[in-house]
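Notebook, bench 3.
Goal today: get a predicted structure for DNA polymerase epsilon subunit B from Monilinia fructigena so we can plan the truncation constructs. The sequence was checked against the plasmid map this morning, with no discrepancies at the termini. Length recorded as 171 residues. Pasting the sequence as submitted so the record is complete.
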Amino acid sequence: MTFILLGSFVSHAVLARGGSGGSIEYKEYFDSLAAILSEYPTLLSTATFIFVPGPNDAWVSAFSSGSSVPLPRKPVPEMFTSRIKRAFANANTEMEKEQGKKGDGEAIWTSNPARISLFGHSENEDEDIEMSPPPSSPLLVHSPPEIDPDIHTARRLTKTLLDQGHLSPSL
């Protein structure tokens, strides 16, 4: 089972508020989430959680005060996520002790936008794109023109290579 959690993981730009405690407060929120998730070790040892950052997340909000920021947004830094990763590791180890097989649960901290492929179906996760309304005009479907088999093979090879790349190669 996969859970995709789209940020912002806080309701206001944490580091832009001024005063002290912004990053400490932000880390405490993730530590609280880790404590809650730790109460469900079976879920942690069998599920994948994917965290996609938003504009109010700590390192981005330090520069933008919560306003729109350029893409790509980097993953949540490890200093904030260590307890959640530890909760997954502990649940996987506990499952191995109890059932003799190691759990495959994990937490993935990705950039925004992120390309996620599940069972061969690719999704681009970006909270700005996800919240946009669907197109108002209907799509017209045409049958594709005949393509030379050699060109078709070359295109498939190129697509395979490009699909392995990251949406933001500079990250």
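The chain is about 40% helix and 15% strand. Helices lie at 22-38, 41-46, 58-64, 78-99, 127-130, 149-163.
Flagging this for group meeting.
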